[in-house]
Amino acid sequence: MLAFACSQNVECHSATLVSFMEETYTGDDIVPLVERLKASDKQAFNELYEKYSLGLFQLLLKMVRNRSTAEELLQNTFVKVWDNRMMLDTRKSFRAWVFKIAQNEVYTYYRKAAKDQKIQEQLYNTFDELYHIDLEQDLQSKQLDLLNRALGSLSERKRQIFELCKLQRKSYDEVAQLLDISPSTVSNLMVRSNQQIRAFVQAHYDEILLFLITCTIR
To answer: RNA polymerase sigma factor 70 region 4 type domain location, by residue (predicted)?
Structure first.
């Protein structure tokens, strides 16, 4: 572990937290630091860490939804920044390079934890949010494709009830009254539908994971 910078905890205060992807620094500000980092200057590393760690931590936290995991991935990211400093190209964006390392760390984390029940639940809950978020236009077609394929695994009746409950956010009692069935029937069919959607998420783990990571950084 890099004791000279990564040993400190990252505090995520809303008053000081800056979006990593929106954060900008002038070339005059960054290039000399990157050049010094490439020359193994630890002080330059510290300064770059201070500039980027808070915003990057915010993104990691959105991706993994666990503070301690986000902190660990942040440290892993900057360890790799230091280990790969000789590969830096000062003509290219340092921020984009650091983000790519962090993105790979998140992907590796989820891949290693693919069989972990808790992580699977976390990914499913994140996928579940796709029903209610508005994405940028270039992501909407993929969003609709994933959702339609997931819903396509359900029978017509299950899909009807699932869409009423999930997409229209109606209560079980409201759906029961609308379809002239009992609330317990609605509940039972929703349980089965959720099981099938979970199976879809597990069967398309890599595809969904990459898409959700992409959504998170927008």
So the answer is: 145-192
